[in-house]
Amino acid sequence: xxxxxxSSNPGKLREIGAVLPGSIEWVSQESLHIPEADEPHxxxxxxxxxxxxxxxxxxxxPALADDSGLCVEAxxxxxxxxxxxYAGRDGSREERDARNNKKLLSQLNEKRNAxxxxxxxxxxxxxxxxxxxxxxxxxxxIARAPRGSNGFGYDPLFYLKDIxxxxxxxxxxxxxxxxxxxxxxxxxxxxxxxx
Length: 195
Known about the structure:
Blueprint: E1 2-5, H1 10-19, E2 25-28, H2 44-59, E3 63-72, H3 93-107, E4 113-123, E5 132-142, E6 158-160, E7 165-166, H4 172-178, H5 180-194
Parallel strand pairs: 1-2, 1-3
Antiparallel strand pairs: 3-4, 4-5, 5-6, 6-7
Helix pairs in contact: 4-5
């Protein structure tokens, strides 16, 4: 199967590409000059569907889309679907990540429980009436200061108490096995094998 990955985020492309089996040939939407889809929706599922439909229609290929984010219980689930632009849209991805992390730390007090949520959608074609959908949840808490240089986004702040490390301190292979995206991908591949 050949599909388009409906993302321009290099971190997501790297993580998804590392887990997809060799039987799936993928190409990024960016390499096909497909602009990113709008994400106006209030849920990860609706945004993932919008991204998958947009990329599939533009590429004429099956599409795999991820919508994911960090949900902090003390903040009522924020930044949630707004995770990528929590502190604004200006600057490079790295500058936005740094601002997002700084803003997140400034919003928190003692309650620091959080989870990453990833919703993956696979469409066989743009108007697929039966998209394959899988969700992954990865629970942790927000560290008091960033640690580690792997990963992206909120990974330097996402602390895994049982491991004693942040997501950014994990080796990529380890993170890919236990993360929200890894969990969702494993479920999605199981659904694809049953389809």
